[in-house]
């Protein structure tokens, strides 16, 4: 087997010929319909997503970020309200809280899953806490039962940021379907990616779903009558059509990612890369990880992660740092008083984590290459 000349972090051009033709047909279908915003394609995709997730209501929107924003808007959170969020997450988790005028209250994470636990959240609650945003980071389902029980006792809403976790399962239930609202992203790098941007909200609450549908279209209900102020958060029919064609492939892609994760564990063990060098992600019993990212922790002296990243880059192996600076230390949140050392687990994750290629079309030869170069780095180190 020939050695690959480099390995990309993600290659969206590796597309099954059958799916490529289906996407072309979807384009022609929408072009012929003349319906380009919302409409039958979006409605059909919403129904198909709701079925897949086991959700009562699904509402297609313009992005995963807008899904989070709408979940907060629809429940009336704003100035004077606190919303607990993890400090280690994509910016939108906290940015949307600020955008509605509420205050993000940062919280540390579990060292293994990178997600919030009920114990962490309980320490962060204030008299003004009205919601918690639980993130299922990298496709790893977060603990939910204890968190839901804690929030129910305090009359606090739970919003699930499942942007990276479509298809992940917590004790037999799909991530995103356990709280008041679940938010998904169809950014092209996600397990189910659009050919542009898109997002989805799910909820068991019919009244909340009706409000979300109105808010995504300027609060109109009926047309040109506005009881509330919304915005333009509509999903394009073309993206919905593309996503409808891709959704039936999601489980096979998820299985391929899981196989790649298992293969990494085998290859690193065979190469003698120990947990003292590299801590690998784990899948907890009773949970289904969907491996949107394969994020390792690089152990060793300060700067070891960055040296490994540079070493891999020299050999044309793509990696990414998710995320290099915790949210409580971001400049835009400085007025909230975050300080170094405040959330040590989040800060250690920002220093040590590195995402390796895990996309479904990754070949065994490419994985062997990645594992071999990582092993070479630690031998050289």
Strand order of the largest sheet: 1-9-8-5-4-2-3
Cα shape:
globular
The profile of the biggest β sheet is: 7 strands, mixed
Percent range for helical residues? 25-40%
CATH homologous superfamily assignment of the largest domain: Type I PLP-dependent aspartate aminotransferase-like (Major domain)
Here the CATH topology of the largest domain equals: Aspartate Aminotransferase, domain 2
Which H/E pattern describes the elements?
HHEHEHEHEHEEEEEHHHEEEHHEH
Structure annotation, total helices? 12
- Overall CATH class of the largest domain: Alpha Beta
User: What is the total number of structural domains?
Assistant: 2
Please name the CATH architecture of the largest domain.
Answer: 3-Layer(aba) Sandwich
Strand fraction = 5-15%
| Alpha-carbon distance between the two ends | 28 Å
Number of strands: 13
Poorly predicted runs: none
Average pLDDT works out at 96
Question: How would you describe this structure in keywords?
Answer:
single chain, 381 residues, Aspartate Aminotransferase, domain 1, 38% helix, seven-stranded mixed beta sheet, three-stranded antiparallel beta sheet, globular, Aspartate Aminotransferase, domain 2, alpha/beta
Structural notes for this entry:
It is a single chain. With 381 residues, the protein is α/β, with parallel strands linked by helices. It folds into 2 domains: 17-247, 3-Layer(aba) Sandwich (Aspartate Aminotransferase, domain 2); 249-380, Aspartate Aminotransferase, domain 1 (Alpha-Beta Complex). It has 12 helices and 13 strands. It has helices at residues 17-33, 40-53, 64-74, 92-99, 118-124, 145-154, 206-215, 237-246, 250-270, 304-314, 344-352, 364-380, and strands spanning 57-61, 82-86, 103-107, 129-135, 157-161, 169-170, 173-174, 181-185, 199-203, 278-279, 287-288, 294-298, 353-356. A 7-stranded mixed beta sheet has the order 1-9-8-5-4-2-3, with helices on both faces. A 3-stranded antiparallel beta sheet has the order 7-6-11, with no helix packed on it. Strand 4, helix 6 (145-154) and strand 5 form a beta-alpha-beta unit. Helix 3 (64-74) crosses helix 7 and helix 9 (250-270) packs parallel to helix 12 (364-380). The longest helix has 21 residues, at 250-270. The mean pLDDT is 96.
């Amino acid at each position: 087997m020939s050695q690959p000349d480099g390995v990309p972090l993600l290659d969206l051009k590796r597309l099954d010929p059958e799916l490529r033709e289906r996407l072309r047909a979807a384009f022609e279908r929408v072009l012929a319909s003349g319906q380009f915003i919302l409409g039958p394609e979006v409605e059909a995709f919403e129904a198909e997503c709701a079925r897949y997730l086991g959700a009562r209501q699904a509402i297609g929107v313009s992005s995963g970020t807008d899904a989070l924003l709408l979940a907060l808007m629809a429940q009336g959170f704003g100035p004077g309200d606190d919303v607990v969020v993890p400090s280690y997450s994509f910016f939108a988790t906290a940015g949307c809280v600020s955008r509605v005028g509420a205050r993000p209250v940062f919280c540390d994470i579990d060292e293994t899953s990178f997600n919030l636990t009920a114990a962490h959240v309980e320490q962060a609650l204030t008299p003004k806490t009205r919601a918690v945003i639980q993130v299922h980071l990298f496709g790893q389902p977060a603990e939910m039962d204890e968190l839901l029980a804690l929030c129910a006792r305090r009359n606090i809403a739970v919003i699930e940021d499942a942007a990276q976790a479509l298809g992940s399962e917590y004790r037999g239930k799909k991530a995103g379907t356990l709280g008041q609202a679940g938010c998904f992203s169809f950014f092209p790098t996600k397990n189910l990616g659009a050919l542009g941007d898109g997002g989805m909200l799910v909820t068991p609450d019919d009244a909340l779903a009706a409000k979300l549908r109105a808010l995504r279209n300027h609060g109109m209900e009926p047309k040109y009558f506005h009881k509330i102020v919304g915005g333009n958060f509509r999903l394009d029919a073309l993206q919905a059509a593309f996503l409808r064609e891709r959704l039936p492939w999601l489980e096979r892609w998820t299985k391929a990612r899981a196989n790649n994760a298992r293969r990494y564990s085998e290859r690193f063990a065979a190469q003698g890369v120990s947990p003292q060098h590299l801590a690998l992600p784990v899948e907890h019993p009773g949970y289904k990880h969907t491996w949107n990212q394969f994020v390792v922790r690089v152990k060793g002296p300060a700067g070891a992660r960055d040296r490994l990243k540079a070493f891999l880059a020299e050999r044309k192996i793509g990696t990414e740092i998710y995320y290099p600076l915790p949210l409580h230390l971001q400049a835009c949140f400085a007025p909230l008083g975050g300080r170094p050392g405040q959330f040590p687990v989040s800060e250690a994750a920002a220093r040590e984590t590195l995402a390796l290629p895990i996309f479904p079309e990754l070949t065994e030869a490419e994985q062997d290459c990645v594992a071999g170069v990582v092993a070479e780095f630690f031998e050289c180190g």
